[in-house]
Amino acid sequence: MKSKNYKSKGDKYFIGFQPPEVFEKIQNDKELKKYYQQYRNHHRLISEGTENLLKMKNKLDKLRTEIKEKERQIRDWNGKMLEGYSVIGDLSSEYDFNCSVNLRKIKPKRLKMIEKGLEHTMRKHYDSNDYSGNTTKKGTKRTNPSHENKKRNMEGTGGKFYTQLQKESEEIKDREVYEPQRNLTITEKYYVRFEPKMKKKGKYQKKRWIRNLYVGQRNEVINLLKTYNKDIKWEVKEEKYVRDNLREIYKGYGRYMISEYGIKNFKIGSKTNEISQHPYDKVKDWIDKMGEKVFEWMDK
Predict the structure, then answer these.
(1) How are the residues of the chain apportioned to helix, strand and coil, as percentages rounded to the nearest 5?
(2) What single DSSP character describes residue 116?
(3) Residue 130 domain boundaries
(4) 9 lies in a domain?
(5) Averaged pLDDT score across all residues of the chain
(6) CA 178, CA 183: separation in Å to the nearest integer?
(7) Per-residue pLDDT averaged across 3-18, rounded?
(8) Distance between CA atoms of 149 and 59, rounded to whole angstroms?
(9) Is the pLDDT of residue 146 over 50?
(10) How many domains does the chain have?
(11) What is the per-residue DSSP string for 53-85?
(12) Nearest to 250 by CA among 271, 266, 234
């Protein structure tokens, strides 16, 4: 007769053979039977749990070995990566820059002069009939006689100075009439700032460059964004959403221009170099011309 094989045989507290009289006593006593079943069930669970725990430890030991091997591989890969980066890393550094959108409050010149208490010194406040003496009728120092008064004084003299004055008069005849209550509105204008991502400046590191590009007022920003995506209702979007999209567009534009014309034509603007100039209309035309290809130059 084949004997039963218990998995927990040999474990601590294992109860093997039971004489018939002991077994019958347990089976006939409810209290003893309850404790017997509690013992047998949990002794079996302990045995199975210990076996599973051992398997888990073996897996863990194997995993630790694999982790150490992978760490060693990564160190080797890192060395080879840095070796390659030392050769080609600088090739893309020009395209790696920070880009931010700034909103500036622009005060008109007259408002600034009012705040400083110097409005009376502005040229537009001079009386064309007040032209003689070192001071004006108001008692202030004559720092900038009116153009019309200058013309009257020189009219009878003729010569090249009067000819020049006639030319200047012709140029300013259609100029906007000055009204004291006008031009006092503070306008808000958007600018995009470019600055290269560079680590702490070292002894031999080149000087950092910063370029600010003027975008325009809110309505111009909205029109530019509509060129980028006309399906979005930009007028009702939050300021952060508008700025984030404007920044990404200009970031893509900057990368494209650097790729096409080089970093020198982007980081410094020159009035004599049209390529280095990046006005609002030029950016808007670029968006319209590129279409969906704009996304290729933006961050993914």
Answers:
(1) 55, 10, 35
(2) T
(3) 109-172
(4) no
(5) 76
(6) 9
(7) 59
(8) 99
(9) no
(10) 3
(11) HHHHHHHHHHHHHHHHHHHHHHHHHHHHHHHHH
(12) 266
